[in-house]
Design a protein that fits this description.
single chain; mainly alpha
Amino acid sequence: MLEQKDLDALRGMMETVVGKSEASMTKKMEEAIGKSETSMTKKMEEAIGKSEASMTKKMEEAIGKSEASMTKKMEEAIGKSESSILEKVDKMIGKSESSSLKKVDKKILKSESLILDEIERTRNILEKRIGKLEDETGELKQIYRIVKIDTENTTMLLKMYEDIENRIGRLEKAIFI
């Protein structure tokens, strides 16, 4: 049977291994999230820049056409242009938001999957180690039982030897008296 200090040493080793694993996983997770945030920020800035350039170009064309062709109906054309632009902006922003959210969701799911895989791998390693410890504990119990039986047998043999010596001593006294 293992002594308390051996169990404490094993616990200490397990806590060290688990602590290192947790620190490593935390660091990897923080790095992955940092990379993901940087990438998404860059993509959002690019998409917004393109959207602004496109919208600016469309707005200038619509206003130019409206001023050149319809001086009398300027208010109507500007009103139509504004509502059209607002709808387009709303649609583009909606698409941009939807696309960004999908990309963020994919990255988060990928990160979660990686983390869960690593946790599962660590769990499997720890289960294997615990299984080995249980096997070794079983072997130690068997050895302990064998040693205990051996000790009991030796004790019985010594007792039998002492009994025989006593009997021989009594016989010698009885014979030589």
